[in-house]
Amino acid sequence: MSVDRQAPSPVAKVEENLPAPISRLIQLRHTIAQPVFAAFLAGGVAGAVSRTVVSPLERLKILFQIQSAGRTGYKMPVGQGLVKMWRDEGWKGFMRGNGANCIRIIPYSAVQFASYSFYKKNMVTMEGEKLPPSKNLLCGALAGITSVTFTYPLDIIRTRLSVQTADFSHLTEAQIKDLPGMWRTGVNIFKIEGGVLALYGGYVPTIAGVAPYVGLNFMTYEFLRIYLTPEGQKNPSSYGKLLAGAVSGAIAQTCTYPLDVLRRRFQINKMKSMGYKYKSIFDAIRIIAAEEGFRGFYKGIVPNLLKVAPSMASSFLSFELARDFFVSLGDDDA
């Protein structure tokens, strides 16, 4: 009995006759074009673009967050804070910690977008199905937890680099130059503060804040896209994507900001110069409420909101542009 075999496609026949290097290049292009892999690469691009655009405001937000009742070095309006940063440290002050931030945000954003794509793919029960907001919220929350778990030590190092020169006007230029960089900071945390566990200090409040933040971000973005870039619209406007990203980021950040403050406080909890010695999350909440009031949980919210709109807008837009490019590499006629 004869067995019918499906004839190879014309494209497959062509690829069989190509030299090995060219054939491997074509296979690589098809691999890159896979949805989850394309989302991973595009997420890295999106992270680098979005963080560099708002680096000065990102650092100022952190400096505001760590101000306690007895520390007033950056207890001022946003504009004055940026002027002080420029006057004290110049352009390097605006970009301080951004190298570590980009090194952190590229894998963080890559894992986040890729895992969101993965979780969405596994939530869908039939082709073309649109997930309800609740499932987008869940997928986003899981993506946030996944990305934080993989990259958290880099976030602690970035925070330490951002604050180590702030309000230390008594240091000489030589002493400032001798401050530890990214690698030395990580090694010091590991050796002095308690090994691997020290590199995950504040992990629990971080997860508590990141999971709902990322979930709300993706859910709101997906919801707004329905109205701002209607399905079936040819060449949807980039302005609609930018607006959807800006609004979703602002809503998510405002709702979860107190948890972000707790995260930053715990990341510097063991720095002797900062004066924080919180025993637990509830202890931190009690102390901040007693010493700084309700506003203590929203320190840095203004520069944060000023940065979140361009940050998330550029992140989602650059992600979609990069993802579409990587997916197009798999087209047979490319």
UniProtKB/TrEMBL annotation:
Subcellular location: Mitochondrion inner membrane
Superkingdom classification of source: Eukaryota
Record keywords, A-Z: Membrane, Mitochondrion, Mitochondrion inner membrane, Repeat, Transmembrane, Transmembrane helix, Transport
Principal location class: mitochondrion
Transport recorded as keyword: yes
Protein's membrane topology: Multi-pass membrane protein
Database matches in PROSITE patterns: SOLCAR
GO CC, alphabetical: mitochondrial inner membrane
Function, in words: Mitochondrial transporter that mediates uptake of thiamine pyrophosphate (ThPP) into mitochondria.
Protein name in UniProt: Mitochondrial thiamine pyrophosphate carrier 1
